[in-house]
Amino acid sequence: DQQVKQNSPSLSVQEGRISILNCDYTNSMFDYFLWYKKYPAEGPTFLISISSIKDKNEDGRFTVFLNKSAKHLSLHIVPSQPGDSAVYFCAASAMEYGQNFVFGPGTRLSVLP
Amino acid sequence: DADVTQTPRNRITKTGKRIMLECSQTKGHDRMYWYRQDPGLGLRLIYYSFDVKDINKGEISDGYSVSRQAQAKFSLSLESAIPNQTALYFCATSGPGQGFMNTEAFFGQGTRLTVV
């Protein structure tokens, strides 16, 4: 049973518009959440993270929102650019589990020019 | 040069053969991980090591073994490869963070393994 879920396998967005990628988790022990971006033939690269003591973290065009009561987080990309087209993985970790990272299945984002 | 280097990048092997995937890192991190990526399943943890003397099984360790030869080196072995081990394999490292705060993982470029 997946502890981290990304229910949208793919998402298409027009350039300049907002991209919203969603992630749900089931384990309430998770206390740190991360988003990774992956291009073909490359390893995942870290994008942005958020601690469970916060509900929002912003870095340039990227903002992550955390709703602990709903066990839900989302990544907003504004404005979306064609170079943002990639697979995005949501991940979670818990100090309780030695900070192993549990990943979701990924969402493929396509930003159309 | 990449901080986390995996070799080989691509490998085709036959069923029943033993194969080793290697990973080295220059980030000075104590923690190293091996993940496998399959379509629709994301990245699943195979093994992890928090220091040279520490080896732990992950979610899908059956059919795999690992060796932590040094702080900077962590290898993954398939003792007798089978076709359903065909996947993309990633090595990753992470540091403990300041004051034991959470930190992110850094990934290698991956090894595409095909078992025929």
Question: Describe it for me?
Answer:
The complex is a heterodimer of chains A (113) and B (116). In chain A, a hairpin with a 4-residue loop joins strand 7 and strand 8 (72-77). In chain A, the strands form two sheets. In chain A, strands 2, 4, 5, 9, 10 and 11 form a six-stranded mixed beta sheet that branches. In chain A, strands 1-3-8-7-6 form a five-stranded antiparallel beta sheet, with no helix packed on it. With 113 residues, chain A is an all-beta fold. Chain A has no helices and eleven strands. The termini of chain A are far apart. Chain A has strands at 4-5, 10-14, 19-25, 32-38, 45-51, 56-59, 62-67, 72-77, 86-93, 102-103, 107-112. Helix content of chain B is 0%, strand content 57%. Chain B starts with a strand and ends with a strand. Chain B is mostly beta strands. The model of chain B has no long low-confidence stretch (mean pLDDT 91). Classes of the chains: A mainly beta (113), B mainly beta (116). The A-B interface holds A 4, 6, 9, 31-32, 34, 36, 41-46, 49, 51, 89, 91, 93, 95, 98-106 and B 4, 31, 33, 35, 40-45, 48, 50, 58, 90, 92, 94, 100, 102-110.
Largest sheet of chain A: 6 strands, mixed
Number of strands of chain B: 11
Give the overall shape of chain B: globular
- Total helix count of chain B? 0
Span between termini of chain A: 37 Å
What would the average pLDDT of chain A be, to the nearest integer?
94
Query: What is the residue-averaged pLDDT of chain B?
Result: 91
Helix proportion of residues of chain B, in percent?
A: under 10%
The coarse overall form of chain A would be globular
Please give the share of residues in helix of chain A.
Answer: under 10%
Largest sheet of chain B: 7 strands, mixed
Order of helices and strands of chain A: EEEEEEEEEEE
The low-pLDDT segments of chain B are none
- Assess the beta-strand content of chain A as a share of residues: over 45%
Rg of chain A (C-alpha, Å): 13 Å
Given as residue ranges, the uncertain stretches of chain A (5+ residues, pLDDT < 50) are none
Strand content of the residues of chain B, in percent? over 45%
Could you tell me the number of beta strands of chain A? Answer: 11
Order of helices and strands of chain B: EEEEEEEEEEE
Q: From the helix content, strand content and strand pairing of chain B, which structural class follows?
A: mainly beta
